[in-house]
Amino acid sequence: MKVYADYAASTPCDNRVVQAMLPYFTDEFGNADSQHCFGRETAKAVADARDTVAKILGCKPNELYFTGSGTEADNWALKGVALHRKDKGNHVIISSIEHHAILVAAEWLENNGFRVTRLPVDGTGLVHVEDLEKALDDQTTIVSVMYANNEVGTIQPIKQLAEAAHKHGALFHTDAVQAIPYMNIDVKELGVDLLTISGHKFYGPKGVGALYIRNGVKIDKLICGGGQERAQRGGTTNTPAVVGMARALQLSRENLAENNAYIAALRDHFEQRVEREIPFIRQNGNKAHRVPSIANYSFEFVEGEGILMLLDFNGIAVSSGSACSSGSLDPSHVLLAMGVPIEVSHGSIRFSFGKHNTAEQVDYIVDTLKQTISRLREMSPLFDLKKGGTYNV
Ligand code: PLP
């Protein structure tokens, strides 16, 4: 059996999305900025896509900018605002569990004279508003806290965090890449100034994202070039991709509650079995505030890479840490920030379910996982010590 349980890394493109995109590769290939009928047809498709996404996010179409990825939108938000507002102050606040798109952008700012505060999280991965309030000062220009975490799924109190930032005159950005597939988001109701989404997390195409920038927010450009995206982001518009992302977002709003309930039921079944049948584990994340798709466990006395390899050998695709850091043996910065001991964090796996998974697949994962963990523990010197009673965790 081949089972994909890595939906937080990427999702398969919905067939209806592919159908919506196809004409824009061939017959309707014109450059959306060309002044002839070929261009006008594509420009209309781009405008419709912008209207669709804007309507779903509760903003005006001219507050939405298409980008080449969620990573680009995150970089643009953080660097663009920090650089534009550098005369006001040089202090930037992020959470310590951000995706690398924000973490590394913040490091870049730090190397270029900015001061960065990384907010702590509690043991379940939650940022507390009081910690943000303590960190804010009159030099703070932007705060960026992700909506839902990509490794453990914890959902942050974005509205309250944005309010706290605003009280101190700072702007607020949220990376909603992992939240938008599961949550209805109205940017005005949420009170954020900037918000990132990415197409391939909700059954849309890869290589396309969007940044909401509230009208009135001033921001430096990240990508200079032609006059596309109201001269804020150069580069010929990727018509098929933006059309596909809009269609995917539209489809994701249909039956959102039913799909969420279906995925959550699979995840709950998985967790119940894992917690009942596999000893010496730790569940990571906040069970009360999280997206329905993600289950994250640390399996003590074994290495995540070994688990991944053996599961992969049995046709099961999951992930250790975030997709972009897999392939590296570094412990997850998210789990470390949550206080998971480093040796335990090494044995952590993220399972992320989607609408194509079945209960049978979930059972196959748990059965294989059980065998995998006991096989690896048989070979683990640490587990030997534990059995002998001389190892304390
Ligand atoms: N932010 C979060 C929370 C993510 O999970 C991801 C993708 O893994 C990104 C940003 C980056 O998005 P993209 O793959 O479109 O660059």
Written overview of the protein:
With 393 residues, the chain is α/β, with parallel strands linked by helices. It has 2 domains: 3-9 and 255-382, Alpha-Beta Complex (Aspartate Aminotransferase, domain 1), CATH 3.90.1150.10; 15-252, Type I PLP-dependent aspartate aminotransferase-like (Major domain) (Aspartate Aminotransferase, domain 2), CATH 3.40.640. Helices cover 42% and strands 13% of the residues. The protein contains 15 helices and 12 strands. The chain has helices spanning 15-21, 37-57, 70-84, 100-111, 129-135, 158-167, 187-190, 228-231, 239-253, 256-277, 304-313, 333-337, 342-345, 359-378, 381-388, and strands spanning 3-4, 64-67, 91-95, 115-119, 140-144, 171-175, 194-198, 209-213, 281-284, 294-299, 316-317, 348-352. It has a 7-stranded mixed sheet, sandwiched between helices. A 3-stranded antiparallel sheet has the order 9-10-12. Strand 5 (140-144), helix 6 and strand 6 form a beta-alpha-beta unit. Helix 10 (256-277) runs parallel beside helix 14 (359-378) and helix 11 (304-313) packs across helix 14 (359-378). The longest helix has 22 residues, at 256-277. It is globular and about 75 Å long. Bound molecules: pyridoxal-5'-phosphate.
SSE layout:
Blueprint: E1 3-4, H1 15-21, H2 37-57, E2 64-67, H3 70-84, E3 91-95, H4 100-111, E4 115-119, H5 129-135, E5 140-144, H6 158-167, E6 171-175, H7 187-190, E7 194-198, E8 209-213, H8 228-231, H9 239-253, H10 256-277, E9 281-284, E10 294-299, H11 304-313, E11 316-317, H12 333-337, H13 342-345, E12 348-352, H14 359-378, H15 381-388
Parallel strand pairs: 1-11, 3-4, 3-5, 5-6, 6-7
Antiparallel strand pairs: 2-8, 7-8, 9-10, 10-12
Helix pairs in contact: 1-9, 2-9, 3-4, 10-14, 11-14
The chain binds pyridoxal-5'-phosphate.
Residues 69-71, 74, 99, 101, 146, 150, 175, 177-178, 198, 209, 323 line the site of pyridoxal-5'-phosphate.
